[in-house]
Amino acid sequence: MSHDYPHLLQPLDLGFTQVKNRVLMGSMHTGLEEERDGFPKLAAFYEERAKGGVGLIVTGGIAPNFRGRVAPFGSELSKPWHVKKHKLITEAVHRHGTKICMQILHTGRYAYHPFNVAPSKIKAPINPFTPSAMSDRQIRTTIAHFARAAKLAQQAGYDGVEVMGSEGYLINQFLCPRTNKRSDKWGGSFQNRSRFALEIINAIRAAVGSDFIIIYRLSMLDLVPDGNQFDEVIELGKAVEAAGVNIINSGIGWHEARVPTIVTSVPRGAFTWITARVKASLSIPIVAVNRINTPEIAESILAKGEADMVSMARPLLADPAFVNKAAQGAGHTINTCIACNQACLDHVFENKRASCLVNPQACYETELQFHPASTKKKLAVVGAGPAGLAFSCYAAERGHEVHLFDSASEIGGQFNYAKQIPGKEEFHETIRYFDQRLKELGVNLHLNSRQSADSLAAGQYDDVVLATGVVPRDVELTGANPDQVVGYLDVLKEHKKLGKRVAIIGAGGIGFDVAEYLTTEESPTLDVKAWSEIWGVDHNYSDRGGLTKPVQEHSPRQIYLLQRKTSKVGAGLGKTSGWVHRATLAKKGVSMLAGCSYKAVTEKGLLIERDGEVTELEVDHIVICAGQIPQRELQQQLIDAGQSVHLIGGADVAAELDAKRAIRQGAELAAQI
């Protein structure tokens, strides 16, 4: 047992029961809840995390009734026959001494269907469906439904429930003047607005008895106008404690908030200050949340007394063995969550099954497995970017002899450019993890080693895997002066110095990254105070919702971000993170122009045409970020030589820089080769 993290690994005594450590796996919807035969897969998913040492798991949100469902076919626990499938989960988790609570979630006006309800008839800005205002009778019925769901959860073997009172869902909608305009006893004064939350807790406690964990997710910082004020948060916290709640979990921000709370550019532990302040007024255990992704930061939060537990959801998607690795003093071997959201939240919001960019086995535990290979092969992998690294590690894990080649002097491929972008510092962690894995698994790594068909033939490999990635696509510009026009690799790899005015051609992920790189002098991601000021998060909590006027950011350059398509600039970025990238650049005065055709490079800059009008942009440099093409010239030569060849990652399909697909493709090939 490691002595590195004494606070993290200390048991938590709740009186009638104990949690074996201070790690709570936060609630996360996976999409398996709704899939046909999804519950056995969900049980395997949670069991893997229990096996990995987590103390307490909270499931994804389960609705207490039909109107509360996330979507028309969303998961619900309201009938006795629903209990059986939940038992699969609780039995799997309990085999490993881990506790599990089911989250009861009523989405209120966030429900993505026409039967949604709310305290008042006010449509959410992120939902096309307008809710109907709840009648007094509907409110009382809903309170009874929460209690019924908790009782059924108890019958299913759960150790407790988490009542979802934050993130802008129904209970939170009752609490805030923003969404509660009622004049009856459920609206008006704070006492009236908080009645719904407290009656739910009282009803649940009456239904389940005293030896059952109730966690209440308290919205500590709404981050929306007309949210709660600090004294109301404390008043509710005290009332919730008095009502018999065992643990208070932090809720930060509403889904409609225009402040990012979990994307990769949010500093680690950015919101522990508010949890610490709330904790000072309460006596039951309090949980810190959001962007806690290493055992070091978790330990430091607990050691400083800012919280009694730490919640991690995505970090346990990335590495189910997180807690065991920390306990064994092997924290450096953890596959760290980079908070990219690309395979988890983006998938869930698109009604797809969640997974994880850095761990494609997440939510595919029963389908993507790496059994020892029946025939051990000698394999060559060309390219040590995400696809090549993933394939090499999984293939070596199965017992193959793997030789990994790259012409560069370091592993990581395109991740080496991504990690330099302000707000993407987490990408360093994935390269560190793969470096560690290659050593552990005995992969033969050959850097500074450019391969040809002849050199590969000489190695007598059973199979060759080409993970050679992509090369930037050229754009033909008339009148181009080579000093004026550069590629994104000139900027991110060669660190070419650019002038004060720059046009970027191409507004996909790379165009946005280059714009971020060129407009930022110091990354606020590494400084909670600076980041909070930029986004208008008020640590003094002077106004409702904890918002203040954002500090104006200074950009060292004037940037034009241009695209040919007429759609909104950045429309193709991630569903849950794209708006953050757009807002960040807008704050720095970047001009984002769609529907551009590029006429010519002039002495003054770039001639473009938009809506039939020709404009000359006065710029010092033009950066080409207009996509990539696969780099696969070795493929045909190898096939001609009779070699068995596989293409993965960008070498296979060069659609934006897609590490999620590259890593999954590498893993899937390794599982079957």
Describe the secondary-structure layout.
Elements: E1 12-13, E2 18-19, E3 23-25, H1 38-51, E4 56-62, H2 83-94, E5 99-104, E6 117-118, E7 132-133, H3 136-155, E8 160-165, H4 170-175, H5 190-193, H6 195-208, E9 213-221, H7 230-242, E10 247-252, H8 272-279, E11 286-288, H9 295-303, E12 309-312, H10 314-318, H11 322-327, H12 345-349, E13 378-382, H13 386-397, E14 401-405, H14 415-418, H15 427-441, E15 444-446, H16 453-458, E16 463-466, E17 470-472, E18 485-487, H17 488-492, E19 501-505, H18 509-519, H19 528-535, E20 558-562, H20 578-587, E21 591-593, E22 597-601, E23 605-610, E24 613-618, E25 621-624, E26 628-630, H21 633-640, E27 645-647, H22 659-672
Parallel strand pairs: 3-4, 3-12, 4-5, 5-8, 6-7, 8-9, 9-10, 10-11, 11-12, 13-14, 13-16, 14-15, 16-27, 18-25, 19-20, 19-25, 20-21
Antiparallel strand pairs: 1-2, 17-26, 22-23, 23-24
Helix pairs in contact: 1-2, 3-6, 13-15, 13-22, 18-20
